[in-house]
Amino acid sequence: MTENLIIFNARVVTPIGFSARCGREMEEICIMDDATVEVTGGVITYVGPNRGEDRDGYYQRYWHYNARGKCLLPGFVDSHTHFVFGGERAEEFSWRLKGESYMSIMERGGGIVSTVAATRNSNFIQLRGKAEGFLKQMSVMGVTTVEGKSGYGLDKETELLQLRVMRSLNNDEHKRVDIVSTFLGAHAVPQEYVGRTDDYVDFIIREVMPAVVQNRLAEFCDVFCEQGVFSIGQSRRLLTAARDMGLALKLHADEIVPLGGAGLAAELSAVSADHLLHASDADIHAMADKGVVATLLPLTAFALKEPYARGREMIDAGCAVALATDLNPGSCFSGSIPLTIALACIYMKMSVEESITALTLNGAAALNRAGSIGSIEVGKKGDFVVLNTDNYHFLPYYVGMNCVHATVKEGVLHPVL
Ligand code: NIG
Ligand code: FE
Fold it and tell me: Where does N-formimidoyl-L-glutamate bind (predicted)?
């Protein structure tokens, strides 16, 4: 659904450009007071100073919204989540509180594999209903585009089911959040293949990936490249096959140990490498050279009590950094945009301006969409966040609290507060 909408008297706060902002450019935010943004049929057709009198009743074909005292930002892009799954893992969180590690729980058959069992036991309606609930919460926090991954099926039928759920939600005429789908068949080794990881990679490449591609169910392929999960060699084999089949590439890289996944992302010119808690200096520079977006997920580091990724150093090295939530039932059961921004500013030493770029234009670039979303410019989608303040510093300052007044999706205004 699209609309004609004129937002006037706004303080527009936006990065500028149709590609990722790298290094120092991330700080450059355009701030425009007493601004008007016009959206026609869901697409931005004017951004500039407030205009005068109506010409020939032209404005009567538009909804009008007075944004006096409010900031207007591009809609947030949450470019890394796992929001379609069955069950939950609250008990694991308590085990971790008592000192057990994420990987040791996974090694004794819990973790991802336990969500796989719950997802295999769920049907389309159950998965869709639960995922729809998460989408509503995302919209309330200003998200207008989200990436979602499969990876809780680990068999052909359930991987395709997860992706079909995302397609169905994305086809909803009244959706408030666009969905970009990623195939993550290599998220863990399922019980049937324990001790035979190479055979599982073969199965994914031969049986599942072609079906994903033929049915156009995903744009990206991702892999959990981690010690004890998929090695650098196995990840390379999988991602090379994915690229040959036309999928763009992402990696869960250097999340738990420094394995070199960020370097592999640079070698393969992946669109993004994500997590990067333990990425080496050399690999950070390689990512900057190759234009791989560094997607940082501070909520996961927070929930796992791990050290934060070196966001400041990555930006100083010239990387394009994106921020995302990683919403999933295990390592990070949170999709909180306000807390993500606060952690990025407080612990990863990013400025508010850099965090805004990271959650908008660079998030869009991490999804190959910087040409159509991520900034408030003519020709892009009319997707916005309206803050209930004219001071965008509230985003980290109002720690973990929501200062979103309304979300606009392709010109349709959805009030929040
Ligand atoms: O990004 N590390 C791998 N995947 C997710 C966690 C998934 C889960 O625990 O269910 C992550 O942290
Ligand atoms: Fe993840």
Answer: 152, 328, 330
